[in-house]
Every structure is written in C-alpha cells, then in structure tokens.
Specification:
Elements (H helix, E strand, L loop, with lengths): L2 E6 L3 E8 L2 E4 L9 E2 L2 E4 L2 E4 L1 H7 L6 E2 L13 H7 L5 E4 L5 E7 L2 E6 H18 L8 E6 L5 H13 L3 E7 H15 L9 E8 L4 E9 L2 E10 L4 H20 L7 H17 L7 E10 L2 E8 H7 L1 H5 L2 H11 L2
Parallel strand pairs: 1-11, 11-12
Antiparallel strand pairs: 1-2, 2-3, 2-4, 5-6, 5-7, 8-9, 9-10, 13-14, 14-15, 16-17
Helix pairs in contact: 3-4, 6-7
Length: 333
C-alpha cells in the first residue's frame, strides 16, 4: 500500500513517505522540499506549485493562494470577508453559500470551489510523489489540518482528496502530527519512562495561525493534554508590520502608497518576508531592503534594523502569551 503524508500549510505543502525505517521528505522537480500552495491559470494551462511562482507575480489576479483559510467557510462570514479583502484574485459566493474562486480559463471566467482548488494542489503532490517512486501513484494519504478546523472544514478537505483521486486514511491535527514526529524516534530509543509522563510544550507559529499544545509522553504512547490557538496570528502579520512601515515612508517621499496596488503589495511582502528571516538576535542586527520598481517605477532602498523590527512587532509579541497561558491552564500543569 503506497501512502504519503501531506503537511498542508497555508503557503506550502510538504510530502513525506515512510521508507527505509524512517520518514523521507520527497523532493519536487526543482529539488525543493516545500511546494507552494498556489494555482495559476494562464490560457488553457494550469501552473501549480513551483511552476506557479514565476507566473504569480505577473498574473496575480489569476493565481489562487491562501486557500486553506477559505475552504469549508461561508462567503458572508466576517472572518472570511476579512481574508478575501487581502487577496488579489476574485472570490464569489456559491449557491451553497461557500467561497468560490474565479480564475480566467482561456480568457473566460470560471468559478472553482475551494475543494477543487485544493484537489488541484493535492493532485500535484500526488504526481511529485509518483515521480519519486518510479511512476507509481500513491493511492492513499494522511493529511494534516489545523486543530481549530470545524467538522465542515474537515469534510471539505476530505472532499478535496476524493476529487484528487486520493484515499484519505486520516486527517490529523497539526499539533498532534508535530508531537508524533517528536516522540516517535525518542520512543524508538526508549527515552521515555514507562509510566511517568514527560510533558512537552510545542509552539507552532505558522504563516497565518498560532498553536500551542502540551503533550504527555510515556514509552510508546502520547496524549495531547491541551491545545490553544490564535487563528489570526502568524508570520504574515510580522511581514505586514514591516510592509506598513515601508509603505508609510515610501508614501511620504513619493506620494503613492504601494499597499494600494496588488502587484506592488506582493513585491513588498516578499521582500519584507526575506528581511524578517535575515534578522536575528544572534548576530544579524540589520538587513538591506532593496526593491526595484516598487511603485510608479520608483525603487526603494533602505535598512531594517532589529530594534526597529522588534518595536514594529511589539503588539504581535504581546499576543503570544495568551495561548501559552490557556494551554497550561487546560493541561493542569
């Protein structure tokens, strides 16, 4: 039985496969472990994953991203409207009340359900796995999802796997998958006590959400004692904090706001993400931020200093404590 595990993130997918007594991460056609969660349609062609990256900046209105935040949600929900406001492509309400994604196929607008878009991504993951296994398509998968997903959202993900032609053996909560990855090798080395539990806190700050979980480990078994979430705190908020500061400085100098132009915003957020990743309290106290043709054919060149970054994200850092405190209280430790 050929089974793959898919870590389905907001920005990327990672594919794992049990092999040679461990878990192998499958590389894509560009030898990368991460596969972008985006679908770009150009003419009669679909570009998915790595192939969509080069197309997305030019054809941002025809590139579906952040689909994990929309699947299984109702279009009119205020949280969904807040998400849609940040997207460059068009979303509409389907007859079911769910979110539909509008992409131009052969110069004609076509509406896809979120399940269909996710199925396209999963189908691509399936083909990547097949290429790594002498052309043998995996028939089964295990798919991760946020612990705060509702039953409706989970069913929507399962529908997407069926559309993709995959048999989903299980949906596993992301925080449970993290704990399993941590514990399985330690347990194999008999590093846990037979009866006295060892408590471990896992903190997962993803692209769009934040999870804190506390897990008890004994030899051969784990128990999730608690999980707490901030569904609206993630790495993208830290990127936006830098972007808003840059946009304010750019607007003051050139009287135009790059946040108001989707193409400029995509370019700006990409540069801010790189700057964020470069900064570190362990030696990298400043990084360059150079963006060609940010808006109105004008470049932006500056530095982002660590202390300035910490000041910009101070309100976000304050939100980190709440889920930690709730997880500790719920676990009773």
């Amino acid at each position: 039985m050929s089974v793959i595990g898919v870590d389905f993130g907001n920005v990327d997918c990672v594919i794992g496969q049990a092999k040679r007594g461990g878990i192998d991460i499958i590389l894509n056609e560009n030898s990368n472990r991460k596969n972008p969660n985006m679908v770009c349609v150009q003419g009669k062609q679909r570009f998915i994953g790595e192939a969509a990256i080069s197309m997305a900046r030019m054809h941002y209105k025809n590139t579906a991203t952040d689909i994990k935040r929309l699947i299984g949600r109702k279009f009119k929900h205020p949280e969904v409207q807040q998400e849609i406001a940040q997207l460059a492509y068009k979303c509409v309400e389907l007859a079911s009340g769910d979110v539909g994604v509008v992409l131009n196929y052969n110069d004609e607008p076509v509406t896809f359900s979120c399940e269909q878009v996710v199925a396209m991504i999963l189908n691509k993951m399936q083909s990547i796995a097949a290429a790594a296994n002498e052309g043998v398509n995996p028939a089964y998968c295990v798919l991760s999802c946020p612990g705060f997903y509702t039953d409706v959202q989970r069913r929507a993900l399962l529908n997407a796997t069926k559309i993709a032609g995959l048999n989903c053996l299980r949906l596993i909560n992301e925080h449970t998958a993290i704990a399993l990855a941590y514990g399985i090798y330690k347990s194999a080395r008999n590093l846990f006590h037979e009866s006295e539990p060892q408590y471990v806190m896992f903190i997962d700050l993803g692209h769009a959400s934040y999870t804190v979980s506390i897990v008890a480990f004994v030899q051969g078994r784990l128990t999730v004692k608690s999980a707490a979430f901030d569904r609206f705190l993630g790495g993208r908020d830290f990127d936006m904090a830098i972007a808003q500061d840059v946009a304010a400085k750019f607007a003051e100098k050139y009287k135009t706001n790059p946040l108001e132009n989707p193409k400029s915003l995509i370019k700006l957020l990409s540069a801010c993400e790189k700057a964020k990743k470069n900064l570190s309290p362990y030696g990298v106290s400043a990084t360059h931020l150079n963006i060609e043709c940010l808006a109105d054919d004008r470049d932006y060149n500056s530095q982002v200093k660590l202390e300035e970054f910490e000041e910009l994200i101070a309100p976000l850092l304050q939100r980190l404590d709440g889920p930690i405190e709730r997880a500790l209280a719920d676990a009773g430790v």
